[in-house]
Amino acid sequence: MDLGIQGRVAIVAASSRGLGRAIAIELAREGAEVAICSRSAPDLEKAAEEIRRVTGREALRQALDVSRGEDVERFADAVEKRFGRVDICVTNAGGPPSKPFAETSLDDWRGATDSLLLGTIHFAHAVLPRMKARGWGRLITITSVTVKQPLDNMALSNSVRAAVAALARTLANEYGPYGITVNNVCPGYTLTERLKELAGMMAGRAGTEPERIFERWSSEVPARRLGKPEEFAAMVAFLASERAAYVNGVSVTVDGGWVKSLL
């Protein structure tokens, strides 16, 4: 199936590893020009090399802090200067610390809000006017299944990611008339570095091995396994495509059926 991504220009945030990197690779495979960013320049170089090796495409890359609006705006300017436009933007950020509410400091709340919510706002400010001017665009936010079914000891993720999902729904209403769709994608248990870190922390608290945590998570999923980053990336690529032009304002879970809600 031709997704209609060939020649489109895509920004993927927090794309030096994990889900962000998988998304950048998938979009490049479909023929998009990709621009990647994260805080770590060395990790970005590794990601760009993998994109080149797997897809043959050269990724524009820039190290930046998504919580700094001026950095995001300069990045969007650089992408437009290089490729002539911005068609697709995937907002993403590393997960906040896993803690219960009682152990979560105000600095933790500020950090999560700056990275997850303000980072999304900065990208929206930077790309939506450009998309509106061209009459076509895809803004896709990456959050978590926690926006539909909160997890224990994840006060920050449960709360701030829900705010991102609400922002995406709001932007879908406001920008839909201009040929722009805004959707939110919610990963479940997916085998990334972040998930391994969470398993290690939970295993430490419980006095067990990370393997036991992975086994428990797998048993909770109807598919009886954890997800692969490329499976998640495939959903993002579809939502970024011409084929998904009538999909707008939704929060889609990619979780093997873990979330039990009807919507």
Please describe the topology of this protein.
Blueprint: E1 9-12, H1 18-29, E2 33-38, H2 41-55, E3 60-63, H3 69-83, E4 88-91, H4 106-134, E5 137-142, H5 155-175, E6 180-187, H6 193-206, H7 210-220, H8 229-239, E7 251-254
Parallel strand pairs: 1-2, 1-4, 2-3, 4-5, 5-6, 6-7
Termini separation comes to 27 Å
| CATH class identity of the largest domain | Alpha Beta
Number-wise, the strands total: 7
Encode the helix/strand succession as letters. Answer: EHEHEHEHEHEHHHE
Low-confidence stretches: none
What fold name stands as the CATH topology of the largest domain?
A: Rossmann fold
Quote the beta fraction: 5-15%
Silhouette: globular
Structural class: alpha/beta
The CATH architecture of the largest domain would be 3-Layer(aba) Sandwich
**Mean of all residue-level pLDDT scores:** 95
Q: Strand sequence of the main sheet, in spatial order?
A: 3-2-1-4-5-6-7
Characterize the biggest β-sheet: 7 strands, parallel
Helix count, per DSSP?
8
List keywords for this structure.
263 residues, alpha/beta, Rossmann fold, 2 domains, seven-stranded parallel beta sheet, 8 helices, 49% helix, globular
Can you describe what's shown?
With 263 residues, the chain is an alpha/beta fold. The chain has helices spanning 18-29, 41-55, 69-83, 106-134, 155-175, 193-206, 210-220, 229-239; strands at residues 9-12, 33-38, 60-63, 88-91, 137-142, 180-187, 251-254. Helix 6 crosses helix 7. The two termini are 27 Å apart.
